[in-house]
Design brief:
4 strands, 63% helix, two-stranded antiparallel ribbon
């Protein structure tokens, strides 16, 4: 029994020593342990944030807390980089449509947006879509005249957008004499072209996908990010130059003079570079 108690005590002591060593190793390698998680979630989150950034406050928020630094740099090269830089990152044969669909908010002849499972999907190509205009009240003169075939319950109407605007221009025009320019063919061609050019590439993300918060929300987030970054820089300078903090008690000239300067300069340059990347993509 005594022998078992000694063995159990030795096992507990060894376990405590192993726990201390394991905790020390974990605290020392915390950045290494979190790196796979940052790589896993940072790439997709960074691309989504850059794609939906439309204002200077969005760029500032990204610069104050960048998750994927390499992703932002590669994305900037893909969007507006030189051909040699695109070849350097292995994207020399990438088309503009793929870049626009993945990193931009715009829509064009090559990229469109569609509703998919309650969300918005950006796909390549030009789909056949149907635009409808819903009129809550069709009691006006031109809406009651034009929407007699599109009426639903309660005097409301649901009609094609093209017919909606064409009917509004026809019924809303004056019946008196007015001066016109050009021939009838030129006027009809111009009118048809202007109707077809109305919203040729509808953008769902900017209209209904991205929920815009009040401006003060972005101001608070940007102010918080700037305050945290400035606080870290001030702490690095004051801690070493004023309070004399050094790692492991070392007081070499490198840790006292060069390390804080390099840390402050590197942080400032990194924030400026991330803001520039977000601005160029935006």
């Amino acid at each position: 029994m005594v022998r078992l108690s000694w063995i159990f005590s030795g096992f507990i002591a060894a376990a405590r020593a192993d726990d201390d060593d394991g905790l020390s190793d974990f605290s020392n390698d915390l950045a290494t342990d979190l790196a796979p998680l940052l790589v896993l979630f940072g790439d997709a989150v960074t691309k989504q944030f850059l794609r939906e950034s439309t204002s200077y406050l969005d760029y500032l928020i990204f610069a104050m807390g960048p998750i994927g630094i390499l992703t932002a740099m590669v994305s900037t090269i893909r969007v507006c980089g030189h051909s040699s830089l695109r070849a350097f990152i292995g994207r020399s044969q990438e088309g503009e449509g793929a870049v626009e669909a993945e990193l931009c908010t715009s829509t064009s002849r090559d990229v469109c947006e569609l509703f998919n499972r309650g969300g918005i999907a950006r796909v390549l190509g030009r789909p056949n879509f149907l635009e409808l205009v819903y009129a809550p009240r069709a009691g006006t003169e031109w809406s009651g005249h034009f929407f007699r075939h599109g009426e639903v319950s309660g005097g409301r109407s649901l009609n094609l957008s093209r017919l909606y605007f064409e009917g509004a221009s026809k019924v809303g025009s004056s019946t008196g004499w007015r001066r016109t320019e050009g021939t009838v063919l030129e006027r009809s061609t111009k009118k048809q072209t202007s109707t077809e050019d109305f919203a040729p590439n509808p953008n769902l993300s900017l209209n209904v996908g991205i929920v815009k918060r009040p401006k003060w929300v972005y101001m608070v987030i940007a102010t918080t990010g700037v305050s945290l970054q400035v606080g870290v820089l001030v702490l690095a300078g004051v801690g070493v130059w004023v309070l004399g903090w050094n790692l492991n008690g070392g007081r070499t000239s490198a840790s006292r003079h060069y390390a804080p300067v390099m840390f402050i300069a590197g942080t400032v340059l990194m924030c400026l570079g991330m803001w520039s990347c977000a601005y160029l993509i935006g």
